[in-house]
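so i finally got all the pieces together for this one. its two components total, 825 residues if u count the protein bits. some of the lines might not be protein, just check the labels. i wanna see the whole assembly predicted at once instead of chain by chain like last time, that was a mess tbh
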Amino acid sequence: MSRRVVITGIGAQVAGGSGTKAFWERIVSGRAATRTITAFDATGFRSRIAGECDFDPAQHGLNRQEIRRLDRVTQLALATTAEALADSGLEPELTDPDRLGVVIGTATGCSVSLDREYAVASNGGRTWLVDHTSVTPHMYANFVPSSIAAEVAWSVGAEGPATVVSTGCTSGIDAVGLACDLIRDGLIDAAFTGASEAPITPISVACFDAIRATSARNDEPDTASRPFDRTRDGFVLAEGSAGLILEELGHAQRRGAHIYAEIGGFASRSNAYHMTGLRSDGAEMAEAIRAASDEARIDGTDIGYVNAHGSGTKQNDRHETAAFKRSLGDHARRVPISSIKSMIGHSLGAIGAIEIAACALAIENGVIPPTANLHEADPTCDLDYVPLTARDQKFDVALTVGSGFGGFQSAMVLAAPGRLR
Amino acid sequence: MSAPTVVTGLSVMAANGLGTDDFWSATCQGVSGIGPVQRFDTSQYPASLAGEVRGFDAAELLPGRLIPQTDRMTQLALVAAERAVEEAGVDLESVPPYERGVVTATVTGGYEFGQRELESLWSKGSDHVSVYQSFAWFYAVNTGQIGIRHNLRGPSSALVSGDASGLDLVAQARRNIRKGARLMVTGAVDGSLCPWGWVSHLTGPGIARADDPARGYRPFHAEADGHVPGEGGAILIVEDGDVAQARGARIYGVIAGYAATFDPPPRLGRPSNLRRAIVRAIADAGLRSSDIDVVFADAAGRPEPDRDEATAIRGIFGANRVPVTAPKTMTGRLGAGSGAIDLAAALLALRDGVIPPTVNVDQLAPGLEIDLVTEARPAELRNALVLSRGYGGFNSAMVVRHRL
């Protein structure tokens, strides 16, 4: 491993946390920000709760034209990219634009706008031959998913490789993993990466209703996301975004950048089993953890914190608990494991990048975020999930994992600067 | 230096040929599959031409349980993947489970499936949305479905960069092989030919408005007026070269070089970075520009990007110095399938020593100075360059080499 990759800038927008500082305060507070949906009238839907961002694009440097033209998912990506860039102190204009890449994760892309445009063009679903004259004239350009990476690249002047990674709920971790590979392979020296999701729209809420994947605890919106708890009944859908600046270590050191953490290893595997179902043995996630740890040249026992996928579905909790035991052995019973989705909900393709940001901040601050709303663990979940309150604990290696529709299982190892060989 | 990544199997689905042999023989003869859309009534729309795949009976080719849970482009992709695996002659179960993966994508998602569910949602209510909607439309659906069908449990992904995706996916598969995988199913079959998809195309970068198929998609033509969307693409099997040789596999060629760039912000008025992608892809292959015997162009079909592409080609190879072709003029542009089908065509061209033609272009736009191949041309081909560009500024270039 000749070229090493570090995180030098973080931006975040999550439910109950606008900006990185507020995001961090939120996830160590133990208080959830999920609530009754306000983005549209969700009367009649099975799940009517979500983690919504209180996000004002005008406050984050977007101009009037961008606010009118771009989908919310892109606006969130631009805001978190700008925050991460400012945080990193990187000056793109002083860097060869060819050596700057963009890799953004998203699962549903511009679904808010497309849902809205469809409703108009079809006259409320009344016609199959939808009317092209009633949609916004640049619908394709503005709402094709690759436009998110294009807008980010334009905003920072990056002219190296650019793409969107869309692997459902592992999009975020997979996007950062690819950005890391591009730097290691020597194709670029810095990457604008992260992930963004804005799925609080009728079609997305309805599709999870249909398979009862989301929580229907509509009367208790702020305690509905209960990963690993005996009473959990599904995940709480959310919006969110994280922007990350990755740099080759020497590049960061030469300009005296603040380094949050090093990305030690990344791996993804697939369960080849079911588009939405999980085998209970967690074999593929365990294999991803093993491969990511090998790449980072760490032993499982070096891991001081595990950021769980922890979506709050019964099958995930079992699958994941099995994967930790399978990959970490006895250490799985000692290492603190938590799910920040308990507080900010599950923002599909964005959450993986948000969780990488959480790990980097946890390493830096020596604090482990808790799993909120976990009062009585399910009997099948017998590990230390850090219930209710954050824990002051210095540690220097974190593992974060993701699991998604399509069977994707991904794992990444992050470490304090200088910790890895 | 690791072993080369080689292509050992491929399968094409396109408007001018269902299956590799039909596609290739039609393509070499200049037989186009583009015509008026038959799947829905286009009389209210200002465009009517598409490259529809005809005579594809999913129910006959796929297990019944897969039909209600898949969009048409996923059905096409599943059949293409099955044939590609078959053609590679590999027993997948002999490859260690975590060393076989899949990287494919759809750049617009399962539009037709999605339109039906949007219609149910808005006309009947949220409780009428299909239990399959959560995954049938999303960008990674083909990766997931192909992975399940062939028990591919290694690194798997989906990259979305417009029509540049097709090459980016194969490059990612090569990266996975360099990092330890032995076999990857990659390439893409894509398409969104339904009314809602059509509306999206109509608002896009330039769909051809002509009604006459011969005047629709005419890249580099003096009167180029847009592209024709199609459905289809190609699935490729790529393997570690040592492993493939050890099992005596037939090898189509080597994924020898690749690079991707992004264009400067339009407000700056600077030229496209396509040229840099080409230069780097050739360098990545360890070759010189004089080693490239044919260029499969992106061929946007609009004056400005056509001129940019011709300028980049001319700048590197010289005026009229390298044969350039765009067989996509017979299939339409295929989203993520675009780069994949051109890679397949390039590998078949290397195999047979023939450059397939570009149709509909009887007169080049002035000043382009490229050697556009308009009749199939026999040639000794060592290396082919394939270009793919995604709307918004994505440029990808890949070099395939015939010999190991």
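Chain A has a mean pLDDT of 97.
Chain A has two domains: 5-254, 265-415.
anyway lmk what u think
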